[in-house]
């Protein structure tokens, strides 16, 4: 037998043994791998890393605290019109952002939150369910379909121990009517607030101390002001008597102090200690509360004293406020009817989006707030706190004495005489944050006395009480025999948002606005700026020439009627030449508009080439190179 054949025969058993060992090892690994995967999916959680610049998918500690302390099971239903939004890529992208945040909260809840996603197609039970749960549909979907994009949340009853969540009865249902992409910065806050409110078993109690008749008069049949009625739908509103007030119950979530005039020292001390204990206070003061029915001041024979102040507490908090100064603003003057004529009142202000803090959750979604004879706040020189404006005037504002406004009550336009803007934005409402010292250090020996607040204490300050009155934001109107309230400003929403924000837990208050998921195309914007500088002057020149051509053409046109045939052949030739020039100029303008976007389009093509052709080609090339090197290396070993 040849030696080579003998060598192959002797080698065959060894080769088969190695192959058998390899197959056995693979089978053993398979037997170990499958149970390991099942066990890890059952007991272990995947570790995820948020690599976004602004940590968009990382929940804040405040949200984590709310989710971790849920006391009862919650069921969330996200309604999104999938078919109706197929031509709305921005809304679809935002829906993905909302869905991923909700899924993050569900994963954190350890089964206490259940999420269901529904596409409410038209004329279906799901559409009726969305409307029944308080969602609002938007128009403008594909083929004119209505678009639902909101969240309904239900707090489920305890039920039996082994009862499924779907079989339990909802005890409370709340909703986010529509996820507005303009509010994306407050997405986490809105969802966390919904979870927090669903977890509450009763309306949060809030206290009201007021020298104005905000609660109405049951004896005279006068109803409460509309803003109090609106608050009563969400909160347990309790009226507190300042004359007998010695302390404020810690269960009061928010205290509204409206137009404090000559408050007793004990009441001021109770407010002082309430704030230092971490209570949430909103103060409404006013240089001239127009609905104040108090009698004439002792030192005045013309006008009663309708101003209010909180001097002792303001001084301790480092707040500067003058109850005898009113902010005028001719740029935001509110149009009113007086003696049958319409005029702009510079002491009554129509604050728009530019005067509202778009980065604060209270005012981010509001469009218009009306105020009247408002004062302003500033920080004292020795203040250890800081002001975060909520409402402010335009730079066209001017500060004048209150008496001057009262003297001009019959002719508000006289306030514009000798008007001199101060070129400053006066703060009409703000958050005051920081560490507050007690305004009553002499009571330090009393039981339970606090001398200083926590470092993150907060008080809301508003330098106007008239914004609470009905006349500045609602008016009654009769529809089909029923009296309805027509809302023409967001004053009520401002107060409700303010109280809603303060009444939340400290965890909820810690959730601030986040960045949006829409990242700006800085390169595109830079190209656009260069294109603007390069071509807009040419566009301006052509438009000027076009205007001159049109004017000359109008001059050469013969008059209508019997004179229309009097134009000479030379005039008609010149008219035709100007018309041709007009068409040429219009073409050049279109070319300029095309050039404005040419570089941006070129950038888009380059990006498409890189993403569609170059990157895949590089991946394939690297794969082929790696495979060739591996094959070559294997051949060398043989």
TrEMBL record:
The keyword Cell cycle does not apply. Pfam families: ABC_transp_aux (PF09822), DUF7088 (PF23357). Keywords: Membrane, Transmembrane, Transmembrane helix. Residues 54-153 form the DUF7088 domain. Residues 203-497 form the ABC-type uncharacterised transport system domain. It comes from the Bacteria. The chain crosses the membrane at residues 21-44, 609-628. This is ABC transporter.
């Amino acid at each position: 037998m040849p030696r080579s054949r003998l060598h192959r025969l002797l080698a065959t058993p060894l080769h088969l043994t190695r192959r058998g060992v390899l197959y056995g090892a693979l089978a053993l690994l398979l037997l170990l791998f499958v149970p390991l995967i099942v066990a890890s999916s059952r007991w272990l959680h995947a570790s995820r890393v948020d690599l976004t610049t602004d940590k968009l998918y990382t929940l804040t500690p405040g949200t984590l605290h709310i989710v971790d302390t849920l006391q009862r099971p919650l069921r969330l239903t996200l309604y999104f019109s999938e078919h109706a939004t197929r031509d709305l890529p921005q809304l679809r992208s935002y829906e993905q952002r909302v869905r991923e945040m909700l899924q993050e909260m569900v994963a954190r809840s350890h089964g206490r939150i259940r999420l269901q996603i529904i596409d409410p197609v038209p004329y279906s039970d799901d559409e009726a369910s969305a409307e029944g749960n308080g969602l609002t549909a938007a128009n403008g979907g594909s083929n004119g379909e209505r678009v639902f994009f909101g969240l309904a949340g239900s707090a489920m009853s305890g039920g039996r121990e082994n009862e499924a969540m779907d079989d339990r009865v909802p005890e409370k249902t709340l909703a986010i009517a529509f996820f507005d992409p303009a509010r994306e910065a407050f997405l986490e806050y809105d969802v966390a607030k919904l979870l927090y409110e669903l977890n509450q078993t009763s309306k949060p109690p809030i206290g009201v101390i007021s020298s104005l008749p905000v609660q109405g008069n049951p004896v005279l049949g006068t109803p409460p002001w509309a803003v109090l009625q609106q608050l009563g739908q969400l909160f347990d509103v309790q009226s507190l008597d300042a004359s007998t007030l010695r302390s404020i119950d810690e269960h009061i979530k928010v205290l509204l102090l409206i137009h404090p005039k000559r408050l007793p020292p004990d009441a001021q001390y109770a407010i002082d200690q309430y704030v230092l204990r971490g209570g949430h206070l909103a103060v409404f003061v006013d240089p001239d509360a127009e609905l104040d029915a108090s009698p004439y001041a002792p030192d005045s024979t013309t006008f009663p004293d309708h101003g209010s102040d909180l001097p002792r507490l303001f001084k301790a908090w480092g707040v500067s406020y003058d109850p005898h100064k009113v902010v005028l603003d001719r740029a935001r003057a509110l149009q009113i009817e007086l003696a049958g004529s319409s005029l702009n009142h510079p002491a009554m202000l129509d604050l728009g989006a530019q005067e509202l803090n778009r980065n604060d959750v209270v005012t981010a979604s509001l469009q218009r707030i009306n105020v009247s004879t408002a004062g302003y706040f500033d920080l004292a020189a020795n203040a250890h706190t800081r002001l975060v404006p909520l409402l402010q005037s335009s730079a066209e504002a001017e500060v004048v004495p209150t008496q001057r406004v009262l003297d001009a009550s019959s002719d508000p336009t006289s306030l514009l005489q000798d008007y001199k803007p101060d070129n400053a934005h006066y703060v009409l409402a703000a958050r005051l944050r920081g560490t507050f010292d007690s305004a009553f250090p002499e009571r330090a020996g009393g039981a339970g006395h606090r001398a200083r607040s926590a470092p993150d204490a907060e008080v809301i300050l508003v330098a106007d009480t008239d914004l609470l009155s009905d006349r500045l934001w609602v008016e009654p109107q009769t529809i089909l025999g029923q009296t309805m309230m027509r809302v023409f400003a967001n004053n009520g929403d401002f107060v409700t948002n303010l109280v809603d924000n303060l009444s939340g837990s400290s965890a909820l208050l810690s959730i601030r606005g986040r960045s949006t998921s829409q990242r700006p195309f800085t390169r595109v914007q830079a190209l656009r700026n260069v294109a603007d500088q390069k071509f807009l002057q040419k566009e301006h020149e052509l438009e000027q020439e076009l205007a001159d051509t049109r004017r000359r053409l109008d001059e050469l046109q013969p008059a209508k009627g019997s004179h229309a045939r009097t134009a000479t052949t030379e005039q008609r030739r010149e008219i035709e030449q100007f018309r041709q020039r007009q068409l040429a100029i219009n073409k050049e303008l279109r070319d300029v508009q095309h050039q404005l976007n040419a570089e941006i389009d070129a950038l888009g093509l380059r990006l498409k080439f890189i993403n569609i052709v170059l990157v895949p080609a590089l991946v394939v090339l690297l794969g082929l190179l790696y495979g060739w090197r591996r094959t070559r290396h294997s051949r060398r070993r043989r």
